[in-house]
Amino acid sequence: YLLTNGCKRVRPMLILLLLAAVAHGQAPQRYLPPPAVEEIRLRPAHPRLIFRPPAGPGPGRTFEDVRQLNREDAVFRAIFAQALVTDPAGQGPALSAVLWIVTGEDRHARAAADLLLEAAITHSGGGRYSNVWSFALAYDWLHDHPSLAGGAREKAAARIAGRLESELAQLDASGMATWHGRNQAANNAMVAALAVGDLPGQANNLRRAAAHYADALRALDFSEGWPEGPSYWIYNRAAPYAVAADSFLTATGAESLGGVAIREVMRKIGLWSLYSYAPNGVFEPFGDSAGSLRLGETGWWEVAQDYFAKLSRDPAVAAGADYFRNRSPSPYGRRPLHWYAALAYDPSARPAAGYDPARPEEWMRSHLPRAMLFGRDSLGVAFFRGAWGDADELFAAFKAGDLLAHHDHYQAGHFSIQRGGLLAPLTGLYGPGGYTGAYRLGYAVQTVASNSLLILAPGESSANLRSLKDSPWTALSGGQRVIRPTGFDCLSLDHFRDQLNAGPHLERAAITAFEIAPGGFDYAAADLTAAYNSTRFAEAGAAAKVSLVTRQFVHLREEEAFVVYDRVETTAPGYLPKFLLHSLAKPAGGEERLLAGNDENDGILESRACAFTVSHQRGVLTHRVLLPEQARALKIGGPNFYAYVEADGDQGNGFDGVNLNGGDPAAPHPGKQLGLWRLELEPLAAGTSHRFLNVLLPRLASDAAELPEVELLEAGEDAHAVRVGGTVLVFARQAAPLARVAVQWNGRLRAVILDARPDAGYDVDGRRIQASGEGVLEAGAAEGGFRAAQTSPPPGPAAARVSW
Question: 25 to each of 22, 28, 177, 293, how far by Cα in Å?
Fold first, then answer.
């Protein structure tokens, strides 16, 4: 069956996908269970999962430690008070066992014991996952309690062991995808195996569970974030990872498994969660995001961040946990999750002296990096932060990674910007029209819904979408390859690597540079070529439409500006590239001509202007177009055109596309927004070589300060240079490092070359300056311009980070 959580799973759909795989020359994958890892040695005494005995060594708190926390810590006491009034009906035995641990009242222990012996231990399947972990925790914690005397303990253990067998059988099969259900099932099985692994006949199950758990750790360590988006992460994946990690650390005393440092994995995912939380109070909605994008809706974000802080012992993650709880309208949420406080909440992980847990943002502003990249060789997501805690914080995200999960979207190169509102949002909802409906397949998952690059190719369609029976949509909507939108057979990290450049070709983008100059600029660059039908790989039945697509994204902190430089090389002049920029209001600027639709507020309009503005809430974004020099902008949107797509990939025969329906675009949504307008910037001159240079200036509408001057500077045949305020940025016209460049300007400005040869030495007006390992050369300030020429090669091949 297909474990695609939240989606319908029916046998005919699996058969169709298997037939499609055969049609594409791919035999159905035979999954081999992962090889064994190092021997697992369990602590002999109980409790050993999350808690430890009073005299026991190693990590973990004692029951008395948590009881003392309840007496002395007001935050813990306020959260756990709600657990004490939770109806245990329908909950697993771990909840009642925790109530006993914290209160010492035996009635809770007896209730947990009754559930251990009588309640159903569910199995994984059909989009649900086994609750065996809850039984394992309660069994371990109550192991020596009188309520499990007289054979009850043995009966409970046998029930857990039986379910563990069936869970491992499913993990040994090929029905679950990694970065999806396989991870959750592996985490849950590990908890169960740690509870009963030292009983007769269970040693092999412990080894099997550890091998699957090590695979799950490797996957998360590699991705450094969740590729399906925040909704799928927080509903089903975050807490199981934390519980399994805590259980493993305390049960074994080991800090790593299969070569993966467990606390470091928890630190990475805790930081990803923190940086994903945008100033509008929504977790950046990549992938199929729908619910729990705000704090307090379910409570899982607060639970998980507390837990990652406890496990990682990282002060930044711990400050983030306070940050989440302080901003949550309902800490630990509106679900019966409050008992998790006994597992997750640990104030000892907070930063040292001088830190105020009531105002963690003050510490975060002075201690956290302003930009951070997650999954450089995998997920490829970067966040750019301003003043933490400020509702009008300047915030941006950039995404350019490979395909790791089917709930991800085809938006390599996308960026989003907030400043007092959503000024450049990611659009498209998950839900309208259904999982396999035309709106999701034709708009929401496709490039057209993002701030990326379209390349229209007449007649282009998706082999995967064509293979779906009765598919309501088969076109690429002008964008990137739609590889696996409705199911995935990636079964492990090794399997992912096998498919990266073979089979479905999961490769989409590579981060070629990432650099932070504190107080100056933040910079990310990516090669996006593989995301499209390209000369590197084109799907069956599709022509290669590009040979090169790159994007460079620069955040100038002093100027509060974003500069985006794109290179697009098409394989034929008839393929039309477009720079996309979405907004929640119609872009203002320039004279307009209605090309299609109803009127100027609902249709497709043409403008030859080179400056536009969009507004949302308290923010306004000024958009300056510098390249192409001969260009037109299409404003597409309104109540009927907000999800317009060019189905045939051809504007030459007129605007005869389709308006896909995702709901009322004027209605507010608590998480991701539907989108209302987009600007498509396209060259007027036909050709195969195109460059886009756009400057975006986000401001508060109340800001009376003048915007920085923006101008294109002369930089010779090999480079493009742009001045934004007091900074000049230099980009190579071709996707290769610059050997020499000269730029002229008026006045005294500072210059940064973004495409220098990594680690090479340059002569800059008589000064020797070495480029960084990311290919960035800060030429410094100069009057009237500068000249730079490479004078020495990099010290060795290992320094060459940029690979076009």
Answer: 5, 10, 20, 39
Question: Does this model's pTM top 0.70?
Answer: yes
Of the chain, the percentage scoring pLDDT greater than 90 comes to 90
80, 70 in Cβ contact below 8 A? yes
Tell me the backbone φ, ψ of residue 265, rounded to 5 degrees: -65, -40
Handedness of CA 361, 364, 370, 375 (dihedral sign): negative
**Separation CA 586–CA 161 (nearest Å):** 60
Query: What are the CA-CA distances from residue 359 to residues 272, 291, 344, 420, 440 (Å)?
Result: 21, 28, 20, 21, 41
Taking residues 155-177, what's their average pLDDT? 96
The span from the CA of 112 to the CA of 119, in Å, is: 10
Mean pLDDT for 433-451 is 97
**Is the pLDDT score of 496 beyond 60?**
yes
484: helix, strand or coil: coil
Structure tokens that stand for 469 in this block? 């029976």
CA angle 585, 588, 594 (to 5 degrees): 95
Using an 8 Å Cβ cutoff, are 675 and 443 in contact? no
Q: Which residues contact 196 (CB under 8 A, 6 or more apart)?
A: 136, 139, 157, 160, 161, 164, 202, 205
Q: Residue 396: helix, strand or coil by DSSP? A: strand
What residues contact 471, with CB distance under 8 A and at least 6 apart? 436, 441, 465
pLDDT in tens, 617-656: 999 999 999 999 999 999 999 999 999 999 999 999 999 9
Spatial CB neighbours of 200, under 8 Å, sequence gap ≥ 6: none
Mean pLDDT of 115-140: 95
Q: Which two tokens stand for residue 729?
A: 């940025």
Rounded distance, CA 158 to CA 170, Å?
19
**How far is the C-alpha of 542 from the C-alpha of 465, rounded, in Å?**
13
Confidence grade of residue 31 (pLDDT, cut at 50, 70, 90) = low
